[in-house]
Design brief:
heterodimer, A: 340 residues, alpha/beta, Rossmann fold, four-stranded antiparallel sheet, 30% helix, 22% strand, globular, B: 323 residues, mainly alpha, MetI-like fold, 2 domains, 14 helices, 72% helix
């Protein structure tokens, strides 16, 4: 396996609020390998976006606070870099695609101006004409028709799908080696989602970038991701190859997510939601954060007291789970002998 | 590789236009070769402003008055301090083109009013420009950085607002020495920047939370670039409207200062000063007070109407203009 391009270790991020300290991200760690698509899934508020935003220095501080951890990118710990240095990385070698393309584009600047700006920020000596030319090329690449004319239009003159294409063009403007896509299709309707997935694939072919795909859409993960990180209550609960995760989840939360999903390849009468509510991140449950909702933990003291470590399953160590009883899940993700 | 790439791009373009042509008028128009005009925000603003007849009329009047001021040396029939004791105290007459009459020293009041417009407008625009620059900077920094920066700058602004304006003006003009339009302008600008600072701060506080600002940060833009290129253009409407109001206010305050004898000093002519000169002569010489007074009212009124028109034009909820 090649050297990871981005290594996150023991990342802990907290937010001070009026109700107390929110433990948004606790001890998160994962590797990103060059050219791969890493899916990060989890419920709203599980810390999947916050972990990447804090790596890029984009969380507001205060109230946010990075308590510990490191994020090594090209030999540098991003969390310790001064902002001036981090700015050169943001939008250059590490770029970001946001969720809502309408609010993420400046309403008073033309699309072309905004993409050219992304180029000029990182290449101060490039000429306007060169930036313009590159802008049109980028718009063509992401499939905006009549790119030349449309680059002179304003965001309100673009449809939702076209705006998201423009956002992707902006993100790949400087040939990033890491592309963070934060819910890139959530704000779009289903047919446009499918187009944007194609654009993302094309963007990856073009830049050879590794993509961190943050989403709660398991379908999108199945479509695009090579490996998957599953997060729950600010922690990584399972990491593995996309096939391993979908075929034999080794954490009851992952298994529950998959059972709540309509699938074409399985004959299921009823979809099962995961019972209960996501835990409070101000006072997380003791032990394993998932235990109040977990079928495996019924009556087991270990789950209530012991915080499970993320541990490797199997000899090659690619599939890891943070469950005390990961071995009790069958290949289909059903607990052995437990309630269905 | 490059072949592969461009074919992928073509493929996507084709698919996108196929998907859009069904529902989107824009691409339909493109395909049929009809020119679709990209209408910028400014085009909409201009269109809405032009519908506001009173504002357009006011702007025309204001431009005419402004031209008279700018070209006063060329237009005025006499010099502003040219005396002719033989022709003292004449009521408005066509004879010798003393349309606004003359004063005791035989100075032509039409010429003096023209030069007065020149001085008063210069001071007003100088004040508007400088106070807007100061206020925008203060408000932008306070709103963007928040926290301690915001606290310090806004308490300073509050302090300025609590100062009794006229008393400060009078004191300052005594200490700095009055009479020079530049000094009067500096003093007025020093007092007038607070309103725009508060407006800009408020706008920045809400703009700061907008996602396109975060997106700009994620694209590697510096604080300065975000403030100047991404946030300020979103505040231009309110800033411009406020600037017009400052122009009107500055004209009135400068007139008041001159009237009290603390503003522009003779032989320079300013509209307020002309009124105070004429006022000493009582109602007999009514023309000495009336014409400069009317012009002050006319200018202030026109500026306010233009400001009104601009405010409506910048209001995005008034998007009644057909494309």
């Amino acid at each position: 396996m090649p050297e990871p391009i981005l290594t996150i270790r023991d990342l802990t991020v907290e937010f001070d609020t009026e109700d107390g300290v929110v433990h948004a991200v606790t001890g998160v760690g994962y590797d990103l390998h060059p050219g791969e698509v890493l899916g990060v899934v989890g419920e709203s508020g599980c810390g999947k976006s916050v972990s990447m935003l804090s790596v890029l220095g984009l969380i507001p501080m205060p109230p946010g606070r990075i308590v510990s951890g490191e994020a090594v990118f090209r030999g540098e710990d991003l969390l310790k870099l001064p902002d001036s240095r981090l700015r050169k990385i943001r939008g250059g070698p590490m770029a970001m695609i946001f969720q809502d393309p309408l609010t993420s584009l400046n309403p008073v600047l033309t699309i072309g101006d905004q993409i050219s700006e992304a180029i000029e920020v990182h290449h101060p000596d490039s000429s306007d004409a060169a930036a313009r030319k590159r802008t049109v090329e980028l718009l063509q690449l992401v499939g905006v028709p009549s790119a030349e004319q449309r680059s002179h239009q304003y965001p309100h003159e673009f449809s939702g799908g076209m705006r998201q294409r423009a956002m992707i063009a902006m993100a790949i403007a400087n040939d990033p080696s890491v592309l963070v896509a934060d819910e890139p299709t959530t704000a779009l309707d289903v047919t446009i989602q499918a187009q944007i997935i194609e654009v993302l694939k094309a963007a990856q072919r073009e830049t050879q970038a590794a993509i961190v795909l943050i989403t709660h859409d398991l379908g999108l993960i199945a479509e695009l991701a090579d490996r998957v990180v599953v997060m729950y209550a600010g922690k990584v609960v399972e990491i593995g190859d996309v096939f391993a995760i979908f075929d034999s989840p080794r954490h009851p939360y992952t298994a529950g997510l998959l059972r709540s999903l309509a699938r074409l390849d399985a004959d299921v009468d009823r979809l099962e939601p995961i019972a209960g509510q996501p835990p409070s991140l101000i006072t997380p449950p003791p032990g394993c954060a998932f235990h109040p909702r977990c079928a495996l933990s019924q009556g087991r003291a270990t789950c209530r007291t012991g915080v499970p470590e993320l541990r490797a399953l199997g000899p090659e160590g690619g599939h890891r789970s943070a469950c005390h009883f990961a071995e009790e899940l069958t290949a289909a993700g059903q607990p052995v002998g437990g309630p269905s | 590789m490059s072949d592969d790439r461009s074919s992928a791009a073509r493929d996507l373009t084709a698919r996108a236009s196929a998907a859009e042509s069904g529902s989107q008028d824009v691409s339909l128009a493109y395909e049929s070769g009809v020119e679709v005009k990209a209408r910028s925000q400014w085009a909409y603003v201009r269109m809405r402003f032009l519908r506001h007849r009173l504002a357009v009329a006011s702007l025309v009047v204001l431009v005419l008055i402004g031209l008279v001021g700018v070209f006063a040396p060329q237009l005025a029939p006499y010099g502003y301090d040219e005396q002719n004791l033989d022709l003292g105290i004449q009521s408005p007459t066509l004879e010798g083109w003393h349309l606004f009459g003359t004063d005791q020293l035989g100075r032509d009041y039409l010429s003096r009013v023209m030069y007065g417009i020149r001085t008063s407008l210069w001071v007003a625009f100088f004040v508007a420009f400088l106070s807007t620059a100061i206020g925008t900077t203060v408000g932008a920094l306070a709103g963007y950085y928040g926290g301690h920066v915001d606290n310090v700058l806004m308490r300073l602004t509050d302090l300025m607002l609590t100062l009794p304006g006229l008393a400060v003006l009078l004191t300052a003009s005594v200490f700095l020495g009055s009479g020079d339009p530049l000094k009067i302008g500096l003093i007025l600008a020093f007092l007038f920047w607070t309103a725009v600072a508060r407006i800009v701060r408020g706008l920045f506080l809400s703009l700061r939370e907008r996602e396109f600002v975060e997106a700009a940060k994620a694209a590697g833009a510096s604080d300065l670039r975000i403030i100047v290129r991404h946030m300020l253009p979103n505040c231009l409407g309110p800033i411009i409207v406020n600037t017009t109001l400052v122009v009107a206010a500055a004209i009135l305050v400068e007139a008041a200062l001159s009237f009290l004898g603390f503003g522009i000093q003779p032989p320079n002519a300013a509209l307020g000063k002309l009124i105070s000169d004429g006022q000493g002569e009582g109602f007999g010489l009514w023309w000495l007070v009336t014409f400069p007074g009317l012009l002050i009212v006319l200018i202030a009124l026109c500026v306010n109407f233009v400001g009104d028109g601009l405010r409506d034009a910048f209001d995005p909820t008034q998007r009644r203009v057909r494309a």
